[in-house]
Amino acid sequence: SQELEQSPQSLIVQEGKNLTINCTSSKTLYGLYWYKQKYGEGLIFLMMLQKGGEEKSHEKITAKLDEKKQQSSLHITASQPSHAGIYLCGAVTGTASKLTFGTGTRLQVTL
Amino acid sequence: NAGVMQNPRHLVRRRGQEARLRCSPMKGHSHVYWYRQLPEEGLKFMVYLQKENIIDESGMPKERFSAEFPKEGPSILRIQQVVRGDSAAYFCASQLPGHKAKNIQYFGAGTRLSVL
Lengths: 111, 116
Fold this sequence. Notes:
The complex is a heterodimer. Chain A is an all-beta fold. Chain A has no helices and eleven strands. In chain A, 0% of the residues lie in helices and 53% in strands. In chain A, strands 2, 4, 5, 9, 10 and 11 form a six-stranded mixed beta sheet that branches. In chain A, strands 1-3-8-7-6 form a five-stranded antiparallel beta sheet, with no helix packed on it. In chain B, a hairpin with a 5-residue loop joins β4 and β5. The N and C termini of chain B lie far apart (37 Å). In chain B, strands 2, 4, 5, 6, 9, 10 and 11 form a seven-stranded mixed beta sheet that branches. A four-stranded antiparallel beta sheet of chain B has the order 1-3-8-7, with no helix packed on it. The mean pLDDT of chain B is 93. The chains are: A mainly beta, B mainly beta. Chain A binds chain B through residues 31, 33, 35, 40-45, 48, 50, 88, 90, 92, 96-104, and chain B through 4, 6, 31, 33, 35, 42-45, 48, 55-56, 58-59, 91, 93, 95, 102-110, 112.
């Protein structure tokens, strides 16, 4: 079965700093999804990557999928308190529709 | 367009009681997934349903748990004779059918079940 490992597990950054979260898969990724979860709330869809080398950006968040499609990174530029939360990467395996999720990265942004 | 609606948001049950969790997908979405997030653990897939059909229940415990998605009405996740280990956040996600959906799943706010 596919496993996703995220690093770091937790992160505390000062407002305005940049940060990167990594997601590494034990198998080839057919679709990689980034979500954000705030405590006590559901998951908010951020971005989806499918092709090796693909890069997508939304506001100050950029996600990349490496050429071999086994690792993705999420980069936040000039972090803000609104970026705080738990970031989860999720992946589909082959033709299966269900998502396997990573362990999560808890981000805190200090003033 | 309302998002995925789950209710109740919080549910308290005593051991041995039944818990019913409801999920109304986004408009036009005919695929529903249920996931469970145990304390200090990651989000785990439970079951995947389309209207009136269970497509994949490989993540469902063999006993006490069942799910349905009738032709009319919300999807229901039912837990019979709850035990303390069932305490968790249960999330529902919905998805458009077809390849254009790109398998993007949209999540509800979850139901937090506490078993006393």
